[in-house]
Amino acid sequence: MSDPSPDAYPAGSGPVRASPGPAWRAETDTLRHAIMLQRCFDGPEMRWSDALVTRMRRHLGGCLASVEMRMRLEMERFLPVSMPTEAQCWAAVQRRPTLISLPLLDHFRDRAAFSLMRQDQLHAMPAEADADDAPIPAELAELLATIARAQADWADTGPDTSPMRADFPAELMAELVWTVAAVLADALIAGGNLTPTRAMAAVEQAGVAVLAGHDEQTMPFAMAALLAHRARALGITEAGLLGLARGRHILPLLAILGDRTGIELLTLARAAVEEHERILFLLCRAAEFPREVAVRLVLGRRCVVWGVDDSMLVQLADGYDALGVEAARDAVAALRLPEPLRARLSFVHDRIDPDDG
Amino acid sequence: MTVEVIERVFVARMDGAGHILSADEPILRLQRAAGGDPAGPLAVPPMASVARLARRLGVLIARPLLIGGADRDVRAWIRAVPTADGVELRISEWLETPHADRGGQDALRAADIALADEGPEWRTDAQMRFVDAGGFADAAPVGSGLLDMFGEAGPEQPLRDAVTDRRAFFAMPVHDGRGGRWLLSGHPLLDVDGAFLGYRGKASPLTDERSAPAEALSPPAAPGVDLPDFGKRIDVALRQPLGRIVANAETISGKIEGPLRADYAAYAADIANAGRHLMELVDDIADLQAIDRPDFKVASEDVDLADLARRAAGLLSMRAADRHIRIDSPAADESLPAIGEFRRVLQIIVNLLSNAIRYSPEHSTVWVRADTDLDRAILVVADQGHGIAPEDQERIFDKFERLGRDDVAGSGLGLYISRRLARAMKGDLHVESAPGQGARFILSLPLRQG
User: Fold this and answer.
1) pLDDT digits (tens, 9 = 90+) for A197-232
2) Who among A226, A262, A324 is closest to B77 (CB)?
3) Do residues B323 and B357 touch, judged by C-beta distance below 8 A?
4) B219 and A CB contact within 8 Å
5) Does the beta-carbon distance from B62 to A222 stay under 8 Å?
6) B400: left (phi > 0), else alpha (psi -120 to 50), else beta?
7) Which ipTM score applies to this complex?
8) Could you count the other beta carbons within 10 Å of the beta carbon of residue A102?
9) What are phi and psi of B3, to 5 degrees?
10) CB pairs under 8 A between A and B
11) Residue B186 has what DSSP assignment?
């Protein structure tokens, strides 16, 4: 390796170079400090694998790029001046990660986790990979295949900023679109070619147009909920549930679990990635899933989060059938509460633990 | 579990303020059941919230929908599409599922509520907001809270406690904040998966004739002194504690609060049954007190005896099924107009059917037939029991007459009260029977002409 030339590395350009301003630096440093500490010292609540973090960045960057691209296309219809050519959003998020709200981060993490869990199935043993032939009612098979195809796009391993379809639930899509809109408005105003009023009006029009074209029903989460709704009418056997578990159709399984327990799918998705294994067993029992489905669900997420050791897992699995369905439903009843209520109860009492009963 | 699937797509269009511009009939049916106007704001809470979300975000929303009904739930798939001037709702994949029957408890509770004193029936959603406020809709608009309407001050909050614990309550005295006093009865509704859907019940207005316990209970009279309001006293003194015993025992036996050993659940079921029997006795004694008074009056209402017979058969269907007895009631399109007081006629038919079920052999049939005879509307309840000897056929209408039976069921007052009620309504009740031939109880009431 040759020595760096003084021109390429001017004084002050090293890791400790000055930041643009004291306030910006204070905020960023606090955040970075928190992130570094969390990554270095894995607490019990922070059990993500490196693969999950990497995949989450890929989803974040890809979805931002995709929405930014669509926004730009819409804005070209309203703007007399051209936009800056370089992508804005990914760089903006790098500079200020708090632009991405907590609900959005949660969802990015869950999508990333499900894509890794599903992808892991591709490398599974042949007998397991063929399990898609298990008895799923024919009326559900096509929808199941559509969900699997949509989720296959989530496993894309291109560069972080390569566009990825932002197939989000409606509320989160609105959040993402308005985040991108704010960054683009800021870029337009900073360019000086438009007044702030006109820049904001342009991004608002573009945002409304992008949202108007968003059909939640073609997104994997909504399709999984539809599949669960149809499964209720058609009836799905234990063998069918086992088929879903062996094929690692996590989202459809969680949607059926939600339909049976009255817990929202987004809440279950978060629980499937974040909660203790005991809670996952309780959820499966509350939905009267066979033990093997519960075990496969728990084992399947080992590629995304560190879990309890095997002896504890065996203990939980052994006690599964002895656990009463009503007791399990009682134990997870808190997850049925609306998310804002759970959050505030948790804040007030610091003890909304579904395990608490 | 019986699931009815409807494969059509139903459409509703809303304006920018959330009012219905047009809607298909099944959606309007839900709207009416929720107490809403067909051209007013959408009153079905889950549909209204999806419509609001679509309008607010300007995004198409596609979600599963769960709407709790009085006796069944509707699950469907909803697409809410924002339009230039409002929202279009497209509802498909419509499934109707009857409520879970927890050992027949719901039917028994529904029977309790049907027989409670007259008053508006109500229904809430899981957040205890009225989706149907019945006769007091002016005081409690759809969407307002039951616990807000019947607010309780002080440390004792029995209504709030019962609702929090998902317990049934019966004839609970409450104030509505506008000076009105009510006896409130209700029971929780659960879907097939055990999810809480809300409460359903009846509010009976409290008048001076029937006062709340706190006001009704004056200091006890000296022993041996005649108590002219003995029936009222026993009613208020016993009914509520018994109601609490029955509700709590049912909660335990139904394992609503959590898992329990099967034998303990069975003991609790025994307690509930015994409590219910005592409650019937209290009802009978209170009725006895009322109908023996010289100023006892009944209302003259237009009633349909065939419809009342079907309702009574529905209320007792679980009890009959327990003994594998089939009730053959009048066909759904059959009608028999008569004059009488709705609640009292239903009480008579329930009494006759209860007796028939109690004294018929298992795997037999009880027939209920509606007919006319000149200016009389006739309802016959016939069973395949042991029959009644001719010399006993008048005695069974005497007070406390049980023909030597010593089983715990029955107070010996039911037929006495039923005949007195029938005669107060210008009708009659008599029996035709022979030993081994079953019994035919014949209720006659004035026929409603035209």
Assistant:
1) 988 998 999 999 999 999 999 999 999 999 999 998
2) A226
3) yes
4) no
5) yes
6) left
7) 0.75
8) 9
9) -115, 125
10) 72
11) E
Distance of CA B354 to the CA centre of its chain: 16
Q: Is the CB of A262 less than 8 angstroms away from the CB of B95? A: no
Asked if residues B279 and B409 have their Cβ atoms less than 8 Å apart, the reply is no
Band of the pLDDT at B226, cuts 50, 70, 90? very low
User: What is the identity of the amino acid at B298?
Assistant: V
A138, A243 Cβ separation under 8 angstroms: no
Q: For residues B97 and B191, is the Cβ–Cβ distance under 8 A?
A: yes
Under 8 Å between Cβ of B233 and B103: no
Minimal CA separation from B7 to chain A, in Å: 11
Q: Which residues contact B240 (CB under 8 A, 6 or more apart)?
A: B170, B171, B172, B213
pLDDT higher than 80, residue B218: no
Question: Using the beta-carbon criterion (under 8 Å), do B75 and A229 form an inter-chain contact?
Answer: yes
C-alpha–C-alpha distance, residues B29 and B35, integer Å: 10
The token pair that represents B84 in the structure block: 């230039």
**Model pLDDT for residues A13-35, shown as the tens digit of each residue:** 333 333 444 444 555 566 666 76
Question: pTM of the entire structure?
Answer: 0.57
Token pair of B251 as six digits: 């909660």
Cα–Cα distances (Å) from B80 to A356, B61, B378, in that order, read 38, 5, 53
C-alpha–C-alpha distance, residues A106 and B40, integer Å: 39
In the DSSP assignment, the letter for residue B129 is B
Test A261 with B75 for CB contact under 8 angstroms: no
> Tokens at residue B337, please?
């107009």
Q: Could you give phi then psi for residue B275, rounded to 5 degrees?
A: -65, -40
Tokens for B273?
Answer: 């049954």
Instruction: Tell me which chain A residues have a C-beta less than 8 angstroms from the C-beta of B3.
Output: 232-233
| Shortest alpha-carbon distance between residue A211 and chain B (Å) | 5
Distance, CA of A264 to chain centre: 15
Among all chains, which residue has been given the structure tokens 């497209």?
A: B90
Do β-strands B365-373 and B326-328 pair in parallel, antiparallel, or remain unpaired? parallel
The answer to whether the CB atoms of B255 and A171 lie below 8 A apart is: no
How many whole angstroms separate alpha carbon A207 and alpha carbon A67? 9
Q: What is the pLDDT of residues A223-261, one digit of tens each?
A: 999 999 999 888 888 899 999 999 889 999 999 999 999
B336 falls in which pLDDT band (50, 70, 90)? very high
> Torsions phi, psi of B296, nearest 5?
-65, 130
Extended beta strands in B10-102, E state: 10-15, 20-23, 61-68, 72-83, 86-98
Contact B77 A262 (CB under 8 A): no
Do the Cβ atoms of B64 and A174 come within 8 Å?
A: no
Q: How far apart are CA A283 and CA A92, in angstroms?
A: 39
What mean pLDDT is predicted for residues B244-249? 77
B1, B2, B56, B60: which to substitute to probe chain A, counting the most A Cβ within 10 Å?
Answer: B60
Confidence of residue A119 (pLDDT cuts 50, 70, 90): confident
What are the φ and ψ backbone dihedral angles of B59, each rounded to 5 degrees?
A: -125, 145
Which tokens is B134 given? 């019945």
3-class DSSP state of A314: helix
Would you state the structure tokens that stand for residue A159, as one six-digit string? 């560069």
